[in-house]
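Q: I'm writing a short explainer about Glucokinase-like ROK family protein for a general audience and would like to include a description of its predicted shape. Could you first generate the structure from this sequence?
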Amino acid sequence: MHTVVPLHQRLLRLLRDLGPLSRAELADTLEVPRPRLLAELERLVATGLVTEAGLAASRGGRRSTLVELHPDLRFAGVDLGASSIDVEVTNGRLEPVAAYTEVADIRQGPKVILNRVAELLAKARVDGAFDRLAGVGIGVPGPVSFRDGVPVSPPIMPGWDRFPVRDFLSREYGCPAVVDNDVNIMAIGERHGGVAHSVNDYLFVKIGTGIGCGIYLTGDVYRGTDGCAGDIGHIMVDSHGPVCSCGNVGCLEAVFSGVALAREATAVARAGNSSILAEKLAEAGFLTARDVALGAAEGDISCIKLIRDGGRQIGIVLAGLVSFANPTMIVIGGGLSQLGHILLAEIRSVVYRRSLPLATGNLPVVLSELGPRAGVTGAAVLASDVAFEEAS
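A: Of course. Here's the predicted structure. Afterward I'll give you a sentence or two in plain language.
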């Protein structure tokens, strides 16, 4: 059941998503009486969220004045990965004003990582990106209690369990903050500004250090009762497979993920089955998913097989989800989406072969359009949503 969204939130979101609009256009789109709209606008102008923006094009008769979100409005979107920090400061339209990305190890714990986020935002402030933030959104690579704003028993985030991330950010920046799972923010970002912008039911599959799925149902992210819906990386695909970080055996992400692919590639190189991988291993002392991607691009049979094997496992899990949820679209993102069309073709092939024709007849399986920006974009969307919510 959908909650009724208050007028001021709908109005602010409309200006965020569509840009400057006339009062007449706002009244028509929101389907509210003109006097009620004008009273709401007056209040939002007084709060500093909305301002006038010149004259609209003539609709016959006197030209009306446009209104827009205040040009000084700023949000911060933060995407924490297992091995990276991405920070973006946006304007009210969620267009980037400043962006920073760097390597970081989530296992260093919340104080080290969040202090680094604070340093990057301090740099953005010094560089003139903002005077103050209206909202902060952050995604973390593990299960989150969305209601409480805390990570909950995240397998790859030692020291983060129940750490008050939302309260820490809210206190630090004196504005509302919101915390979600990294895959959910990517799904939100892709729907706001990517390939899924016009669909209400879709799956966003992140394949990176771990594997997860953002689930959009009837226009909203589905998080589940405790916030861990979509944790498909821990669906068992091989009862005799390797031990996973969660302690179970044969999970999808233990069989195919950034870490798993590097492990399998190393085994292939040591067995002498790929001269390209053996050469790269001798040079660097270790292998990464990128080495496999480069080997596949050069036509190396072993690299292509590693990618296809992984794509098949993901396809099997997704075929089950397609039969279960009947989505409009599946979007593949995350670091391993760089494996490109060999991976995508294998996932498509398995999904189309194993799901019912009715569910796959009109089902595009596509790569993320936003790529590495999906997470920070979604985090900024959530930051703006929570800021608009509190503008009552």
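A: For your explainer, you could say: The first strand starts at residue 21 and ends at 22.
Q: Perfect, that's easy to follow.
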